[in-house]
Write the structure tokens for this entry.
Amino acid sequence: MFLTAAGSLSFNAPLPLAFDTGSSGMTLFAPNAFPGMATACSVDMPTGCGFTFPAGQHSITFDNVTITDVQATRCYGGASGHAQTGNIGFASITFGDAAGTLTTSVMPILFYYKVTANNPPRCDDTGAIQNASRIQQGWFGVNTQADGVVVGGILATSQSPLCANGGSSTCRAVSVFNYLQYANELDAGFFLTHQALQPCSINSGTCLPEPMLTIGLTSVQTAGLASVPLGCPGTTPLAGFPDCSANIANSVITVSAADGSNSTSYPNAAILFDSGTSDMILTPPSGVALPTTGGTNVIEDNEKVLIVVPTGYEFSYLTTPAGTDETILNAAGIGTNIVGIDFFQNHDFYIDYTTSTEGWH
């Protein structure tokens, strides 16, 4: 997703963020977005980085962007992932390309300047420092379930409030798309048309925009697609919409040889369709043994993985030793089975926030 502005500050070169169906809320690498306001932590400069607040002030404001002195961390990817640490801030954001842009209302954003190795089950900045400018520009999360923003080492719960200006404790962030105004005839949500991956890096500036995202849904768009209602245990909307889990419960996963022989299944699996994960992840229950390459937690090459959701929709693929269909077993800290980015190369996908529904083709 190309970010063209934060508040009233337009970027000379749009900032490419990772579009993530598996997380919620937005993070932005502040030293790239605001080079005069924030400095990056790095292996060579692990301290003395971040924002500087004038004596006695608890926030700074520029170009309709507010940065508070509340330091926070967000974590991605479990034990093999990373943590982003920065300050909670608030701004509208504008995203899109030359064909058109949309602007949100003012929303919470983690303006981060430090990236460390993740340290589950904690989510903090105590892991090894990574040179953030070579890793990412930020995360654009559109999941239907709120994500925790960790303050003071306190993990979020379902009772944690939505991040708000003036707050100073652990809070939650919701989908960026919750902060858009939808026309009366549209459901809130989005539709992704499948698209092949480009041979580029989102950090290199060589990736080109593709017309694959539609924001706002009609029944015509989703007609004929398999769908499932999402679980929404809470009764209080967050930023206007229900807080629903995008994990598809009670699914069945079967792993077999390519010809269907030697199959092993496990039911009651939770599945997350996650454009922000670069491979596949299986998390079978204790006692279920899946074939792995000797000495690794990677499923053997050319195994068939069949995933069936409760409404009968089926998705299958053959494992590979590397790349988008590499399948990792029991990735610590994930806690669910993840269908990664390769799915989105060949299948259409949507989430409807208004009806709390997810669907695929």
In short: The chain has a mean pLDDT of 93. The first strand starts at residue 2 and ends at 6.
